[in-house]
Amino acid sequence: MPPAAAFLAPAILIVLLARLAAAASPTGVECVLFNEEYMTCTWGTAETLSTNYSLYYWYENRSPVAECKHYVRERGVRVGCRFAGRELVQFQPFRVRVNASVGGQSREIPSERMELQDLVKPEAPVNLTVRNLSSNELELRWSSPYPKAWCLEHAVKYKSNKDTSWTELGVKREIFSLPSVDHEKSYTFYVRSKVNSYCGSTRLWSEWSVPVAWGSDGTGKGAPGEHWLWIHTVFIPVISSLLMLVLIVLLVRMERVWVIFMPRIPNPSKNFDELFITHKGNFQEWAGVPKDVVESFKPNYSESICHVSEVPAKEGAEPPWEGSEGPAAAPAGAPERGPQHNSYVAV
User: Fold this and answer.
1) Are strands 30-34 and 120-121 parallel, antiparallel or unpaired?
2) What one-character DSSP code corresponds to residue 85?
């Protein structure tokens, strides 16, 4: 082996061993609380780690030590831990410890004290809109998905199509005004947010929002922000009014057509309401029959009633002819009566 090669071999070996040692041991833990919905703590990547580490966490003077429930893995190697929002408590000292056992030896990152309110990274602003305040002033508005919007401060970045660099300004509210607008230019706006000093001490900004543009690019076409503003303020109300008018006309015409094809069936019971309610069932009075005609049909005579009853014969009574030779002969011309006839007495 040449002398130069013999001299370089140990140096290369030392560098490789140092890189392996660095790859086996993470240098620190970085935690980020995303929009107060979940938090991730990472200590490396699959390229920098060669073994699995375990993370333990606890709140000072509040809870026992617990191990991570949801590890983040890359190619089978643990590179981080994910915490659900319900597991996190702000304004309480939070500590983590990461360690592993490699070759019978324990490797550990010392515990780090954190304040979760200082680790918040809000979600990027949404619903950016631009409108004209006057002939030479624009107003930019947006909203934030962050649940505590009063805890945010914002930064607006804008540039015209003729500028070479971006202009960035800080604002406290979800509104920004740009005076001295050149209508010969088109403007592009971005917005991002972070927690202000009243709610935490963080330098973590959200990602930049989706851009919104305004102005003319020389073709005479308005920018998307102005176009959508015109649609919402003019086009949609006019179309809605026209549709309502058409529906009303159709309903009126359908009512007339329905009456033609399906005429209403008369209800004859209403014609007799006067007979039963006003005249109380008096048909002659309801029909208008004169009183003298009604009186002429009434009978003007009376009949006496004759009551007739049957008297039965008494038991043991002797016939009137008993003790004599026979019954008396009936007078001539009188009808004969058989023994079955009973006697009737008029009362």
Assistant:
1) parallel
2) G
Tokens linked to 136: 């030479």
Question: What's the 3-state SS for 184-225?
Answer: CCEEEEEEEEEECCCCCCCCCCCCCCCCEEEECCCCCCCCHH
- Which of helix, strand or coil describes residue 149? helix
- Which H or E element spans position 22? helix 3-24
Q: Quick one: pLDDT at residue 7?
A: 44
Q: pLDDT-derived band of residue 26, with 50, 70 and 90 as boundaries? A: low
In the structure encoding, which two tokens stand for residue 209, read together? 């929002």
- Please state, as a whole number, how many other Cβ atoms lie within 10 Å of the Cβ of residue 161: 14
**56, two tokens:** 């333990």
Q: What is the pTM of this model?
A: 0.54
What are residue 305's phi and psi, to 5 degrees? Answer: -105, 130
**pLDDT for 216 beyond 90:** no
Strands 137-143 and 175-179: antiparallel
pLDDT value at position 335?
A: 52
Give a three-class secondary structure readout of 86-143.
Answer: HHCCCCCEEEEEEEEEECCEEEEEEEEEEEHHHCEECCCCEEEEEEEEECCEEEEEEE
CB atoms within 10 A of CB 283: 9
Give the single-character DSSP code of 6.
H
